[in-house]
Amino acid sequence: MVRVTRPMSSWRIVLWFGVISLTADMVYEGARSMYGPLLASLGASGLVVGVVTGLGEAMALVLRLVFGPLADRTGRYWLLTISGYALTVVCVPLLAVAPFLGGAGLAVAALLILLERSGKAIRSPSKSALLAHAAGALGRGRGFGVQKAMDQVGAFAGPLVVAAVVAATGVIWPGMLVLAVPGVVAIAVLLVLRARVPDLGAVTGTPDAAHPPASDDPGSEPSGIRTRGAVRAWLADAFGSHLPGDFFRFAVAASLTTGGLVTFGIIGYHLTADAVVPLATVPLVYAAAMAVGAVSALLVGWVYDRAGAHVLLVVPVLVAAVPPLALTQSFGLVLAGVVVWGLALGIQDSAVKALVAELVPAGRRATAYGVFAGIQGAFAVIGGAGIGWLYDVSLPALVVTVAATQLLALGLLWRTVRPGAGPHRRARLHPGA
Fold first, then answer.
1. Is residue 391 within 8 Å of 270, Cβ to Cβ?
2. What is the pTM of this model?
3. Which of residues 216 and 12 earns the better pLDDT score?
């Protein structure tokens, strides 16, 4: 007798993806909480920490311009999702080896951090496509909301695990090694889900969207011409052709806040290099920031829906307040700075993305998000390197420079959200109009 396997329900798939996000976030958020102290223990300066962490965030954003279209054109959503998670799950525990490699330890750790961040770029577009399809029958807002909530649980729990291990051992590398456990769980659950849902159509209540990728022009043109045309079309999309000027103005403004927001790598480096807190306290501080970010994302999303995009004007103010608070010798001020850092991060994860959807036509939103991520990535590299260098040279100069960039960002934001800035989004920017 042939055994028939019932298709998984949409809710079960969303919950399984939530478990994957929870355990995987424990891995990479637990590791990110200690990137600064880890690099410092291997001999890194503030500049090196800024470059590595800034470049890592840039790669996690910019490479989506490659792997998003690749997923759509090849249909290899599961392969890219699994590959991206596997890269993260392998690279983080390997950081435990870096302290034993002598002079090569810093270079190896930097490479592993960049590869871990690349894993996020590889998997994110494909995972979002799979999750969006599965959640279609129950409501994508609810589906992504559940997944994000479980994601944040992992982002909070991972640093706590690392803090406990570092407190017990007095060194960093065992904290990286123990993260292999949730990593194995994440990959195991992902493989089980892949076996149960072999294609996008194996979801109860949702149509089959797993069609093979179509050529850009299936007519009679030779394949070489079609390929060149497809490449030109992809490049045009990657550079944001036909996107409105308001979008680019907002992208630059938001990217200035991204580049000006001191990475936690620098904050963690400062906390340990200047002995502001014990080593095991650093991931606890990061966990607190993640909790603040999660709450602020929910609250600001609610405010955005009711009060409009003017809520974004607070972001440059928050970003400018981080250095004079978080990079001091007072733990109380540092904690206040980390709370402000978490608030800024939460707003960037919610209302910023919401406004992008209002600034472009519906049919161009996926392209707009890719271009937006690319611009953010470029500013993340410049900001990470600049802030790291200024941290080594002069903290007052760092504070003044960040404040100046945020003043520019505030001006660009005001031009975007001011009254009458765009009739096609007037209802969102000005509720009740």
1. yes
2. 0.74
3. 12
